[in-house]
Design a protein that fits this description.
With 560 residues, the protein is an alpha/beta fold. It is built from 19 helices and 24 strands. The strands form four sheets. The protein has a seven-stranded parallel sheet with strand order 9-16-17-18-19-20-21. Helix 2 (96-104) crosses helix 7 and helix 7 crosses helix 8. The structure holds zinc ion. Zinc ion is lined by residues 93, 95, 252, 456. The site of zinc ion (ZN) has 4 residues, from loops.
């Protein structure tokens, strides 16, 4: 259902109103007054309102329609004709650059078979001079893990072009023969630490599938994006964000060159979305340098640098997630740790001493425990108050570890659509007992943990209404399974919306400035295509941002 809303810009005048109240001296003259709106504020002290005044980049006032007319006669007014307004969505775990690269790269997301992908790449090769790299993205390494393709057909279709096709979740890559040749990957090449070169069982030759860190063998030969290309990619992704109603993102894993790109984009007013970055903790020189200079808190809230991203393990689909006990569907493996616990502890200790936050990717129950142990040790030593360490994904957590999140004040940064994407095979990986602690949002929330929600795009859609739908239904967009998958872990609509607003703001130390529509906060909000509070789950799936405002400025407007 998509009810068209009528919006008109008009100039309020006092004519016809019993106009007796000019704005009080404490209220600055507004630049915009939103009237005739159904405002879902997410402020528990004033949950709903009809009007809102904005001065500069902040909300000056929130209240009723009549008061608005009295307070702000003669002000520029946006009449929303009853449309619903909600706070700007904050996506707490994103990959803007990957999304941007995927917008530049060939998308394989909607090509379900090897044949279809090979055909698409063959067509691309025909348009490129020999030797030029073909870069694709989006085949599903989780779904295909039971039966990975080889590069035989791909190599035959592209004999003169190196091709590298990254999986949907970036945990496996598919290289053709030319790419392996350039990278020098042969039968003799040993598996790197924390990665695997898949090999033909009979001949021992690499099949072209490289998992986890083995992808780097090829990736390091792919020409780097220039700064301009990187900026263009990030800008394209940021525009996608505001188109979907995201006004802030927490960018997970940011390199030195990305910081430069972000800075320049902000300086050139080309970054419509606010960004809090997590520095790439694998680049020790980078974090040493930042620990030396301290966090960068932007008074304009455009680009904040105060967080470090670490990886404790891989992903569940490709069996890289570190489990306490072997995989239920492959008893020879328990997955892999990608950063030792001592290193997580040491970096956390140093980060806390310098006022940084640490956000560690942990999927398996062993990885989650290792990170909680490391955090606990570092927390015991820190003098700092209000520490907000994060675990990214917290996907499979041992029951005994669930309460530790709240006890240690560790934020569980989770992704509703990971659950609904993984549910067809997740239980095969971990079995019927461990699955109880998997994607366990309800348990985590009931245990008192902070629960910011996010998409982890581009592995999943960036559309936040798909995330909210997944959170409240635990169903695929098609509505399966009936009643939801392990529905006892569903969230209410309000909890899901909190996850994408206040909780996500809390996770970046921004809850005083963002996450609800109340006086003094940044004027980040969206006008929705329908009233989310009165929509069925199916209707929520179809909600769209009609207009997106960041700091009181219109950054997206749906075409009429
Ligand atoms: Zn991620």
């Amino acid at each position: 259902m998509s009810r068209r809303t009528r919006m008109t810009l008009s100039l309020f005048s006092c004519l016809g109103f019993a106009c007796n109240a000019a704005h009080s001296p404490t209220q600055p003259r507004p630049d915009l007054v939103v009237v005739n709106a159904n405002i879902v504020t997410m402020n528990p002290r004033q949950p709903s309102a009809e009007a809102m005044a904005i001065a500069g980049d902040r909300i000056a006032w929130v209240g009723g329609a009549d008061e608005a007319r009295r307070h702000y006669p003669g002000s520029v007014t946006l009449d929303l004709a009853g449309a619903t307004v909600i706070p700007g969505i904050i996506d707490a775990h994103t990959h803007l650059l990957s999304l941007g690269e995927s917008l530049i790269k060939i998308s394989l997301k909607d090509l379900p078979t090897e044949d279809a992908i090979v055909e698409r790449i063959r067509k691309e090769a025909a348009t490129l001079p020999p030797g030029q790299w073909i870069l694709g993205w989006g085949w599903d390494e989780g779904k295909w893990a039971a039966n990975y393709p080889t590069n035989a057909a791909l190599s035959a279709a592209t004999p003169d072009h190196p091709a590298f096709l990254v999986g949907l979740h970036s945990f496996a890559g598919w290289a053709n023969a030319k790419a392996l040749e350039i990278a020098g990957v042969t039968q003799e090449t040993k598996d790197p630490a924390n990665g695997q070169i898949l090999r033909d069982a009979r001949t021992g030759k690499p099949t072209g599938i490289l998992t986890n860190h083995a992808q780097d063998l090829v990736k390091r030969h792919i020409p780097q994006l220039t700064l301009e290309q990187m900026k263009r990619a990030i800008e394209l992704a940021a525009v996608e964000c505001v188109r979907h109603g995201l006004t802030s993102v927490h960018e997970a894993q940011v390199s030195r060159s990305m910081i430069r790109a972000f800075r320049e984009l902000v300086g050139e007013s080309r970054l419509p979305v606010r960004v809090s970055v997590m520095l790439d903790g694998a680049d020790r020189a980078l974090i040493d340098e930042w620990f030396e200079r301290g966090p960068e808190i932007d008074p304009r809230h455009r680009l904040t640098i105060r967080s470090v991203k670490l990886f404790a393990d891989g992903a569940l689909g490709s069996r890289g997630a570190a489990l306490l006990e072997p995989y239920s569907d492959q008893s020879a493996t328990r997955g892999i740790f990608t950063t030792p616990g001592d290193v997580v502890y040491d970096i956390t200790r140093r980060a806390l001493a310098k006022g940084f936050q640490v956000a560690t990717h942990a999927i398996g129950d062993a990885a989650n425990r290792q990170v909680l142990d490391a955090y606990e040790r570092a927390l015991r030593e820190t003098q700092r108050k209000d520490v907000r360490l994060r675990v990214e994904h917290a996907q499979v957590v041992a029951p005994a570890d669930v309460p530790r999140f709240a006890q240690l004040g560790v934020i569980a940064s989770m992704q509703p659509t990971h659950c609904t994407s993984d549910m067809p095979w997740a239980e095969q990986r971990v079995g019927p007992v461990r699955i109880q602690g998997a994607y366990a949002w309800r348990r985590m929330l009931d245990a008192g943990a902070h629960l910011p929600l996010s998409s982890d795009f581009p592995g999943e859609t960036l559309d936040p209404f798909h995330g909210i739908y997944a959170a409240i239904t635990r169903q695929s967009p098609e509505g399966a399974p009936a009643g939801g998958w392990r529905p006892e872990e569903r969230l209410t609509l309000h909890e899901a919306m909190r996850g994408y607003t206040q909780e996500a703001a809390y996770a970046e130390y921004e809850e005083r400035d963002k996450g609800s529509l109340e006086p003094g906060k940044l004027a980040d909000f969206l006008v929705l295509s329908a009233d989310i509070t009165k929509s069925s789950p199916r209707e929520i799936l179809g909600l769209r941002a009609q207009r997106t405002y960041v700091g009181g400025k219109l950054v997206f407007q749906a075409p009429p």
